[in-house]
Amino acid sequence: MHYISTRGHAPKKNFLEVLTSGLAADGGLYVPSEWPIVSRETIQSWKELSYTDLAVEVMLPFTGGMLDKPTLKRLVDKSYAVFRDEDIVPLRPLEDGHYVLELFHGPTLAFKDVALQFLGNLLEYELKQRDEHIVIIGATSGDTGSAAISGVLGCEHIQLFMLYPHLRVSEVQRRQMTTIDAGNIHNLAVGDPGNFDDCQDMVKHMFRHPEFMGETKLVAVNSINWVRILAQIVYYFYAALKLGAPAQKVSFSVPTGNFGDIFAGYVAKKMGLPIDRLVVATNRNDILDRCIRANDYRKEGVQPSFSPSMDIQISSNFERLLFDAYAQDAGKIRQLMDGFKADGKLTIAPEVMAQIQHDFVSLATDDDQTVEVMKQVYDAHGYVVDPHTATGVRAAWEYKQEDVPMVTLATAHAAKFPDVTERALGFRPELPAHLADLFNLPEHFTNVPNRLDAVQEWIKRHTA
Ligand SMILES: *Cc1c(COP(=O)(O)O)cnc(C)c1O
Question: pLDDT digit string (tens) for 52-98?
């Protein structure tokens, strides 16, 4: 097993090399050269495994022999020991044949913890082996920042710099980053007030031009990093096994932004898990919904919504799906992505589109509908879903079939979004105990001007 770029002009890499890279040198994303196929008998034999034992079985083939099984097991155990539920990702019945997979029991209350806790531990392990130090730079408007910080907290071989737009991040999300007090974590509040796109552009620029850091390697922890996708494949197996797989087919409804989480479901299906439908749930930023319904992948401006972690303009992981759907034709992907860069739109060949529509269906949900779903679910079941999960629930209702269980991925805890929840349900959900102090703890951040040279200068000065 090795990894190749979706654009075909970058050197192939092994698992551990992919771990510490960002975008491939040709602008593509790294993907496994082939999907490891798991037989029905093997899937059957995984039925009684704990989440962590299952995670080892699912992830091991992707390491291509670069990690031994006991080491992987140790890293997985450490990563999920910090989750507050003994099932790690509990599956709750919502209504007949419809289940919610709660992915928000990690330290920062969003599904991103499932991947970023593991990624942080794996990075620290590997860097220690190599005796190497790296710098992680990221931009966040919400959940990624705190999940990444929590993932690499206290890692001796990693300095993390997180850029966020000053005064433009919700108070819960800001405090989840800034109340962390650790020598290797640096929160940079950009501008006055700042703007997320500027933060993102600066980070992209620094990855394209890493020379300013000298010898120090820059590593990305957004979902272009393959290891994030990898860790998310596991919970598709976990939920499906609980619902009768491999004998029973299962469908999943996934609140989607960058197409990372749902792509992990697609990989699980490619490996042999009997997934029937993968339902793409978007908010009003509906580029993926338009693409899957009408082959209309066209860039529009980002509109703020009640589910901010899904407010995207371009869905970076969609390129990984296209590469697979075009049978790994990297020349074709280069042509499509160059065209998209030039014209802001992309048209998929009809026979390829038909295949994508065989695996995926989609639904877009606006803010009013989001609030309505939150209210309906609470009134019927006394259960609180966050605004992101609500888009998934509505899409699940749309596509639920009689004889196939449907699982909606619950991607965040509603306490992260108290204002929308109050608008929908009339009360503010309580933060779990480990975050009860969030509003009392001192904050740690540095204000930096919205200028690339100033940000680079600050990062250089604080990299030991
Ligand atoms: C990041 C995020 C999403 C979108 O996930 P993708 O992998 O980018 O599709 C959905 N919901 C929440 C709460 C998130 O934090």
Answer: 999 999 999 999 999 999 999 999 999 999 999 999 999 999 999 99
Strands, E, within 175-248: which ranges? Answer: 185-190, 217-219
CA 290–ligand 1 middle distance (angstroms): 18
Residue 157 has phi, psi (to 5 degrees) of -100, 5
pLDDT in tens, 298-354: 998 889 999 999 988 888 899 999 999 999 999 999 999 999 999 999 999 999 999
- Distance of CA 255 from the midpoint of ligand 1 (Å): 7
For ligand 1, atom 8, name the residue with the nearest CA: 258
Give rounded-to-5 percent helix, strand, coil for the chain. Answer: 45, 15, 40
Ligand 1 test: best mutation among 104, 235, 261, 311, most atoms within 8 Å of CB? Answer: 261
CA of 116 to the centre of ligand 1 (A): 13
Q: Tokens 């796109």 label which residue?
A: 197
The answer to whether 112 is a known catalytic residue is yes
Domains observed in the chain? 88-107+226-425 (3.40.50.1100)
Atom of ligand 1 nearest to the CA of 256: 9
Q: Which of 112, 249, 269, 400 is catalytic?
A: 112
Average of per-residue pLDDT values in the chain: 96
- Most ligand 1 atoms within 8 A of CB, residue of 253, 411, 413, 421 to mutate: 411
Binding-site residues, ligand 1, Cβ < 6 A: 110, 112, 143, 223, 255-261, 309-310, 388, 411-412
46 contacts 237 by C-beta, under 8 angstroms: yes
| The two three-digit tokens of residue 195, written as one number | 């703007």
Nearest-angstrom CA–CA distance, 407 and 387: 17
SS3 state of residue 186: strand
Give the pLDDT of residue 103.
98
This model's pTM is above 0.90: yes
Model pLDDT for residues 178-222, shown as the tens digit of each residue: 999 999 999 999 999 988 888 988 998 898 889 999 999 999 888
List the beta bridge partners of residue 383: none
